[in-house]
């Protein structure tokens, strides 16, 4: 029977690089909308509730 132990070969650098990229992407995609909302007047945002 064929062996499937070497189907995926991951090294530490590619795993860490992917993790850092995902964290940076999450940070950037959350930072700008939060910054925009933080500069908004609370009464103005509650007006549409």
UniProtKB/TrEMBL annotation:
UniProt organism field: Citrobacter telavivensis
**Residues annotated as transmembrane:** 12-32
Keywords of this entry: Membrane, Transmembrane, Transmembrane helix
Q: What is this protein called?
A: ABC transporter permease
**Superkingdom as given in the UniProt entry:** Bacteria
